[in-house]
Amino acid sequence: MGQSAKEIAIEISIAPRTVERHIENLRLKLNARNRAHLITQAICLGILTIDGSVSANGMPLLI
């Protein structure tokens, strides 16, 4: 949804650095160059849908 790490952190009550670390881990696992590419990869792999819903285990993808 275009939120910053700080905005995500506030919303789910964790440290912004923790959000950044999760994003970086996802980026590395999906071989994405940056956050925008990460979203594209997640959509192509069916992890994330265009409307923002998630698949697989139902956990939200926080990007």
Automatic annotation (TrEMBL):
Leader sequence residues: none
Gene Ontology terms: biological process: regulation of DNA-templated transcription
Domain HTH luxR-type residues, every copy: 1-46
InterPro entries linked: Sig_transdc_resp-reg_C-effctor, Tscrpt_reg_LuxR_C, WH-like_DNA-bd_sf
Entry's Gene Ontology molecular function annotations: DNA binding
Superkingdom of the source species: Bacteria
Protein name (Swiss-Prot/TrEMBL): HTH luxR-type domain-containing protein
Native source species: Sphingopyxis witflariensis
